[in-house]
Amino acid sequence: MGCKIPNIKCSISDPLPVLHKYYQSGDLIIAGILSQIYILSKPITFSKLPSNELFEDMIHFSPSWTYRASLELFSTKGRFVPNYKCDIQSNPVAVIGGHNSEVCLHMATILCIYKIPQLLYGSTPEINNKNQAVFNHQMLPNVDIQNYGILQLLLHFGWTWIGIMTMSNDNGERFVHNMVPMFSQRGICLDFIEKFPVVTFSSDITDMVTEGIETQNVVLRSTANVVLVNGEIEIIIGLRMFPAFSQYDDIRMKKVWVLTFQIDFTSLPFQRSWDIEFLHGALSFTIHSKEVLGFKKFLQMRNPTLEKEDGFIRVFWEEAFECSFPNSIIGQEVETICTGEEKLETLPTSVFEMSLTGHSYSIYNAVYAVAHALHAMHSYKSKHRAIADERRLKLLHEEPWKLNQFIRSNTFNNSAGEQVSFNQNGELEVGLDVINWLVFPNQSFLRAKVGRIEATASQGSMFTIGEEAIMWSSRFNQTLPLSLCNAHCQSGYTRTKEEGKPFCCYDCLPCPLGKISNQTDMDDCFLCPRDHYPNTEQDSCIPKVIIFLSFEEPLGITLASSALCFDFITALVLGIFMKHKDTAIVKANNRNLTLILLISLLLSFISALLFIGRPETMTCLLRQTAFAIIFSVAVSCVLAKTIIVVLAFMATKPGSRMRKWIGKRLASSIILSCFLVQVTICTVWLTTSPPFPDLDMHSMPEVIVLECNEGSTIMFYGVLGFMGFLAVVSFTVAFLARKLPDSFNEAKFITFSMLVFCSVWFTFVPAYLSTKGKYMVAVEIFSIIASGAGLLACVFFPKCYIIIMRPQLNNKDQLRRRND
Known about the structure:
The longest helix has about 35 residues, at about 615-650. An eight-stranded mixed sheet has the order 10-9-11-12-13-16-17-18, sandwiched between helices. Strands 3-6-7-8 form a four-stranded parallel sheet, sandwiched between helices. It has a three-stranded mixed sheet with strand order 25-27-26. It has 21 helices and 27 strands. β7, α3 and β8 form a beta-alpha-beta unit. It is α/β, with parallel strands linked by helices.
């Protein structure tokens, strides 16, 4: 068939030939369509007829070669007759295909027409056609297993800031579509998603290199130390370009490369001497493999001079050992001649690996899967009908599709001792190994197994890794690399979102006062338990110490000593007054009131001691009530004294009726009524909401205050209010009577005492409310002592001075003379 284009002659009757083929005859043929050689060519400009000149300058892949290779499987050996099965004897029973998804996809287009079983390895496309899918058997696990493993790997090492590089094809789009939502849900975000340049027949080498450099710049400028690379085997070729064309220093290349199982090491001949140190410390997923007995010996026996029909090995041998066979370079001088005796084990692993890779192990299992399926099919037919071997083989070639069910349903142990089986979707039920790449100066490398993903284990135990066995890049000084958008927020800080940046980028703010964070990267700080408080760094809680105003501490000792001291002075004054009870100054202004007042002051100083020491139920009940009742009696005595002074002056006027009010009954009535009112208030308080021992955990951040809870705050201030009322009345009456003629001017002294008393207790309220813990108790004790001391000093010290120092003034004549 021909075509005409103006001024150009063209023909498609002779498609591009398959460059290398290998055929070995046998009763049953297993074919392989593998893309093992990269062709360099110039881009097609449609300015001249395609020819072998295409094979010159550029890397590319042509689907037509896969189509032709697939069609040739059904043609007579050495001939190409499309769409005809000319030689049943040489037709394959199954085809192994790979290593990239394009080879698998294009071969399926042809082979599925003939219902040939296809065992795919390396990388497989998503086949939406159910009729085609039944003929595809993947020598790979379900990709969901790898996706789960990738997620667990990143979470295990805390890598939340990563980049993704992927292929510019459907598989790459599918990978991004599946992984990005999964990452987002688990707190992993992306700095970039870059695609490798597309390599096609029509690509321009300059454009491709420019695009590749732009991609490289994005990757190497990134602050992400971890780059997830998804693609196919040739991706390594692209990665090896990075150091060669990079404008950055080598340190930028030393990232943690995480490679998917579809990727394997390969390179172009001109990359042989290129440094691969950037791969040191990389982690990759690979199909679980096990060393096969005899494999290394098989490799050591390879000799291209003895395998002349195998064109692949001769091309490889020349490239690997940098030599040429004499008959392959006619007319050219060669420095090094290939002898065929060269040893593969002398090659660096960057050129050839002597151990089975994951892809090689998949091919190995594919061959055995077909063999065991054929055996199962043979056994099945033998049971149902006895026919000759020749008829059986002919039937197999005529009905190859029947082999598919035996491949998918068959389970066997390979020669390495591992079980091989497929699931209902035609995927190999096998786990993945996690590999750590160790690169050596001689361009060799070692794949060290450091982890495993078990396909059949429960999700919680699927992923295991030996972190201590991993060798990291020299950039990280053999410490676990960090890959974060920003540094961890340490304990004592909380994360806050940065506007306009991915969700895993954040600022670190100190915890608010009273809260802590005890882990890194916490989204919120939290309160300590009630009996703990935050330390200075706000990263842990410290148990609070229980405190109360005790007799052992300096403040307690000072207050107790003061109370006892004034109590002793009061007792001394009481003794003086008792000793001189018959003197004029003691009898003046009601001797009984004076004695009751001194006894009240004596008891009030003692009541202050109830506020010191560990609060108990009884002391809590007695503290406020005893103090309130005693002080009410003391103030009522002062009030009675003041009223008697006023009444005594009024009674001296002619015709006054006040004389009948002056006497003991009036004083007793005043004291008794005040006493009863305060007792009533205290009784109601104790019966309704009495004080009780309590722990105050909130007033002071670092301690727990053991205190007496007043029960009813209203009743507490009611008791103080009544006492204050008495004090104000006493002060008012005494102030009005301060200039009245009186023995030793007692009204003036009472005015001073009430002024001191009121000043102390009016100051007490704000001071009490502004202090916390045991200092509230100290304020009240101080107020009790200060007000009692004020009364003692203002009322009794002038009289004591006269009694002791000026006894000559202590007689009736002096009293009358002073009054006159």
